[in-house]
Each structure stands twice: as C-alpha cells, then as structure tokens.
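Troubleshooting log. The previous structure file for this entry was overwritten by mistake, so regenerating from the original sequence record. Sequence copied from the archived sheet and checked twice against the printout by T.R.
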Amino acid sequence: MKGFVARLDEINQLADTSPGFVWRLKDGDSAVSINAYEDPTILVNMSVWEDLESLKNYVYRSVHIELLKERNSWFTKMTDAHQALWWIPASRTPTVDEAKEKLKHFQENGPSEYAFNFAKNFPAPTK
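Regenerated output below.
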C-alpha cells in the first residue's frame, strides 16, 4: 500500500482540479479512514462529476491511469463488481449508504438506469 498512499494526495489534488469535478467524499484530505464495511480492507471512494465524459477523462486519460495499472500490487482483486455509477440532481450530495445500496443493486442485477458502470452506462435523466 506504500506506493498507493504515497500518491494519494497527488491523485486527489488532480481530481479536485480536473474539468467537470464537483465533489469527493473525504474525511480530512481523503476517504481512506472512512469504514463503510465490516471488512477494514475495503476502501470507499466516491466522487461527483458534471458528466460521465469528465469522469472518464480523469480516470482513463490522466495520471490516474498509472494508479489503475498498479492497483493489483496494492489491493486484493475483488470477485464482485466494486464500482457503480448513477445520476444525481445537481444540488444533491450522495451518501455512503446510498452508494452501498447502488453497488449492491448493481452486483445483484447488473447495469440499469438505477446503477451502471463505464462499460454499460445510461444517459442522464431528463427533467
């Protein structure tokens, strides 16, 4: 984890200053101390972006991709889906409990308008 922790401030700062970034879950400077599950090895990472393209640019077209390529040396590979995306109104901040519910729904039902992933996503709802 040393390599991951050493780059965490850099990657969080990159997110905070990336086009389309709105908010990220944190306790202090990061979210690594937030325990959402009984298993203390599960880290929670949540952020809000203006649109899916901005998030994709940050995740796959920035320095962040370097951390993705190294993740297997820091984390145990999860067998279940470990990521869920969903749309929220612009004025709302999601909660950890909401994220857990969305992820569970995604794991049990696959991608839908309720919760999806990068590979199978849905457009933002119209008003």
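The longest helix spans residues 2-16. Archived copy saved in two places this time.
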